Structure formats: C-alpha cells, structure tokens
Amino acid sequence: MVIPYARQSINQQDIDAVVAVLQSDYLTQGPAVPAFEQAVADLVGAKHAIAGNSATSLLHVACLALDVKPGDLVWTSPISFVASANCALYCGAEIDFVDIDSETFNMSPSALEEKLEQARKKNKLPKVIIPVHMGGQSCEMQTIHSLAKTYGVRVIEDASHAIGGSYNGKRIGDCRYSDITIFSFHPVKIITSGEGGMATTQDEHLAKKMQMFRSHGITRNSQEFVNANDGPWYYEQQELGFNYRLTDIAAALGLSQLQRIDRFINQRNEIADRYNKAFTGTAITAPSISENVISAFHLYIARYEFSNHDITKGHLFSAMKKHGILLNLHYMPIYRQPFFQKLGFDATNFPNAEKYYAEAFSIPMYADLQESDQNSVISSLLNVLSAQ
Ligand SMILES: *Cc1c(COP(=O)(O)O)cnc(C)c1O
C-alpha cells in the first residue's frame, strides 16, 4: 500500500448522486449544474457562480471576461501550477511574475507594491493580477486589493487550493477583495467533480460574460439579443467562446461532495496540527498560517535546509518512496519550465521562489489519511532526515 500526497474521498452518497443523474433525462445542461452553482454561491457568499469543466478553463474565461487581450500584461505568482500563467497567454497577453513571501508562499504584497511602482514609471502596468492561495491559505487580499485599486488593476483569485477556507472571518470566494475567484475540483483538491471548476463573482456583467464564454459565446436569453428575435429557435453567438461546460454527472458529484466541505477542512486541519506538533523542535519547518486565515490545507508544505545537510531533496523523495510514501513538490517555479524559459525570465528576480524551490516539499495530506498512515509519514520523515 502506497500513501499518495493527495486523493479524493468518495462515499455512497456521492455514488448515488452520480447514478441518479445517469438515470435522469439530462447528462449535461440539466438541473444539476445550476444546483451546484447555487450551492457554491451560497457557501462562499457570492452573488454569481459559473461552473466549468476545469479551473484552467475558468481562468481563461475570467481573463476573457476582464478583456485580457494582445498587448495586455498579466502578473501571477511563480510558485503555482502553470495554469495560473497560461490563461493570460491563451488571450495573447504577456505574463510576468511577482515574487512570493517566504513564510506564506503567497504573492508578496511588498514585492507587488514595488513592482507596481516600477511598472507605473515605465507606463507598463498589468491589466490583471492573479494571486494564488497557495496550499489553501488566503493571500493578504486586503493589501492586494488596495494596491489594485491604487494602480487600476483587476484581480482574479486563483483559489484552486482553497474552497472552504476563510480570510478575515469570511469564506474565500466572496470576492470582497477581487473581481473573480476560481476554484478547482480536480480529485487532488478539497472537493472533486472528477474534472471541474467554479468561478464566483459579485459582478453581474462579469457573470454574464463568463457564462457566454464558457458556452461558445452563445446566449439564449432574448433580453441580451442584439438583433431581432427570429423565432423560438433563435439564439445568438456574440463572442468567440468555447465549450467549457461542466456535465451534470460531474456537477452531481461536486454538489454531493460540497455537503461535507467543513468536515474535509476540519480533518485536514487536524492532520496539519499533528504534523506541526511532530516537527516542533526538529530541523523540519512547518508551514506558517496567518492568524486571520483558516487554511483549506490542500497541501502540507514542509521545508528543510537541504543545502546545510548531507541529504538532497531527490534522496529524501526516493528514501520515502521505499517506505511507501510519495512526496511531491508544489511547485517548480513556473519560469523554470522550458516553455516559459523561452520567454526570457531571470530567476534572480525571484529570490524567495528560488529558496522555496530548494527547500520545500509536500507530504501526504487528504481528508481520509488515517492516523496510522500519518504516524508512518512522520516517523519515516524523521528517520530519513535524522539518518544523515
Ligand atoms: C489545480 C490547479 C489549477 C488547475 O485546475 P484544473 O481544475 O485541474 O484545471 C490551477 N491553478 C492552481 C493553483 C491549481 O492548483
């Protein structure tokens, strides 16, 4: 038995919900998608929620709704999944990165302020910034929001790791400090719909645009038609959109999973507490979670100063694998990917991301991770590292 770094938690209620859709009239474009959208909107306190077939699709749709186009600039965090950056490139815009904070691993508000000030002087401000709630911990959104206002920049929160988490006592996704928030329901994330994602916003105009872009740029709402309504068959394609729709099969699974969101978050936080206690007084640094945040704990990211020890990160990964425990790294800085290297980034601009890449690794974290498995993660890790 191998312990992975993440996995889904599926129960009989989830299975029954999916089977019920399979036996119904609609496998897609039926009632399960709007029901799931409404439930996520209610959970996070957003007026609008738009489901899609992945967070990647919805990041693209969110950029399109904010009119990101060739000639525009988008900034995100270098320590994220590549999708956080690719969405800008899909729109023909240019991408750049803001270094992370070395304690939270989130976009650093001070690095952001400095970069915005320099960009203003060069008249090269970004249109959109995409802070990423790394591992499930919210970014310092209040500061990021006030900087965005000062410099006239729009904000998309990449909350792929963070559904169920909160910031200043409010759920992530209420968009109080952003234009749009994006969640992912990939099986490694907090809740799953197989593949899938959700965009939330308080802005009706942005919601309409995202609904259109996720489905071919088509509207069937006669109040939105620009030309005369020819008859009952009539609809209009008003934008160049995509088929990024979520199926009802997936939505039913997501909606069923959502009923257990708080249980999942609690279980993940309990596991994090046990890890934290076990690593106190060792050379392993536990993640630090800000006072005003409840992390969704998608990831438990530990750090170790490999450069001061005889073991490399590669050796740690293979030694743990021999114990049946799979570690992971979230993430290699995006600018180190060959595709992004071609765009010409200078790693010395991102010292905190580089240090993070040298020291960080993710250990197993998921709601169903049993106590005996937590214990073997802890003892194997302490064994392997102190054996040096
Ligand atoms: C998983 C993830 C995505 C992409 O999510 P999909 O639903 O798999 O498309 C985007 N950003 C971050 C930070 C992620 O972790």
Shape: globular
Radius of gyration: 22 Å
Largest sheet: 7 strands, mixed
- Tally of distinct domains: 2
In short:
This protein is an alpha/beta fold. Helix content is 38%, strand content 13%.
Description:
By secondary structure, the chain is of the alpha/beta class. The protein has 2 domains: 12-258, Type I PLP-dependent aspartate aminotransferase-like (Major domain) (Aspartate Aminotransferase, domain 2, 3-Layer(aba) Sandwich); 261-386, Aspartate Aminotransferase, domain 1 (Alpha-Beta Complex). Helices cover 38% and strands 13% of the residues. The protein contains 13 helices and 14 strands. The strands form 4 sheets. The protein has a 7-stranded mixed sheet, sandwiched between helices. Strands 7-6-12 form a 3-stranded antiparallel sheet, with no helix packed on it. Strands 10-11 form a two-stranded antiparallel sheet. The structure holds pyridoxal-5'-phosphate. Pyridoxal-5'-phosphate is lined by residues 54-56, 80-81, 83-84, 132, 158, 160-161, 184, 186, 197.
Secondary-structure map:
Elements: H1 12-22, H2 32-44, E1 48-52, H3 55-65, E2 73-76, H4 83-90, E3 94-97, H5 109-121, E4 128-130, H6 141-151, E5 154-158, E6 166-167, E7 170-171, E8 180-184, E9 197-201, H7 204-214, E10 218-219, E11 236-237, H8 248-258, H9 261-279, E12 293-294, E13 300-303, H10 313-322, H11 338-341, H12 351-359, E14 360-363, H13 371-386
Parallel strand pairs: 2-3, 2-4, 4-5, 5-8
Antiparallel strand pairs: 1-9, 6-7, 6-12, 8-9, 10-11, 13-14
Bound molecules: pyridoxal-5'-phosphate.
